[in-house]
């Protein structure tokens, strides 16, 4: 009932405000003729989430724990498996809904969606584990061992597949939320560039409102029409059918203006977003403290020591040990291919700079001729890398086998031994050369505050196709905002980047 009232109210306002639409208004609405997609997308997520939960719970039901323990289940404390299965399935579905894992503002981009799915799942099963221990019913163990990993894997896989589908839709121009930008021209321009040029953002600025005195008939910013000033922002939002309004802070956009705008948007169901000038600061470092008449935005300083770094080091070692065992056949095969097809050692050792500027010998499978370093000066004019990076797409020093293993990053597999030795991490910034570090600016040196990684944002973000500035930005962002779950996502994305071979040469 409430939804229909909002819909009718919004439709009525649109009728009032669009009685005599101007040419810029028609252009704005024509540029973003979007059918509401969020409801149908959430239904798809509910369907696949339910299927994943059912698979995990049903598997645990048939692989009953009491079949694998020597003591019989005590009937006086036992919980019927069918009842327990239903309760866990319902609780799991409820936990996903309660944690807002299908919020349209987080689906389709960034790690928050995956993080919420993971958090809501492990917290539920942590409670189940405590209850199983306190009340001593062994039935719960099977669900911890079978349902949790199987169901969680299905949930994350389903979200990943739907995200790929959503990205394709957004790249084609649909399934994006219309945005009205409010602020000075330069602020609106930055927002338009950031949102409209990135399909994964899920947003598209369709109109702009700027302070009074700056509005001129037929004016636009990067092709987006300016349809009014700050006082008419609420009306413009209804006229262009915006899904949200993004407000950039300025001297003209006062607290009173924002408050009145929120009152205007409330009855028509349009979201209000406040943009900040904070760059490359992730959500976990931001805390909002409400005060008497203002909200205080706290930004935690990045930390590079403590328990989570100890846990990261332990996880790196165990992860590298497991990878060494799993990839042993690949390591042997690649090593034999290098040894049999070109003269020289199988491994190539190169000095790289690690954490706090300490150098170490990084191992790789040799992909070039033995005398490749001697030709470096002669090839300087052919350098295609940006900034301090030296890259040549068709490097004549690379052997035929080296070209193949480079494309699929197989030459970097021996760096697993560097991880075992403690010089590197599984995920981290790109390991730089000493000559690169000698030319680092202060900002770039922040890459050296953590161990370099076998993979990282630079690997999944474009590899050799990245510019020097973008490579630095990604590395510094990782250093200051990394999380263990973020590392897991980077490792998963690395597998896809390696298989595709995109950006490697």
TrEMBL record:
This protein's name: Sugar transferase EpsL
NCBIfam families according to UniProt: EPS_sugtrans (TIGR03025)
Residues annotated as transmembrane: 45-63, 78-99, 120-137, 143-162, 317-340
InterPro entries in alphabetical order: Bact_transf, EPS_sugar_tfrase
Top-level EC class as recorded in UniProt: transferase
Keywords, sorted A to Z: Membrane, Transferase, Transmembrane, Transmembrane helix
Family: Belongs to the bacterial sugar transferase family.
Gene Ontology molecular function: phosphotransferase activity, for other substituted phosphate groups
EC numbers for this chain: 2.-.-.-
Membrane topology: Multi-pass membrane protein
GO CC terms in record: membrane
Main location, first listed in the record: membrane
Compartment(s) where it occurs, according to its Swiss-Prot or TrEMBL record: Membrane
Domain Bacterial sugar transferase, residue spans: 312-499
Record has Transmembrane as a keyword: yes
Pfam families: Bac_transf
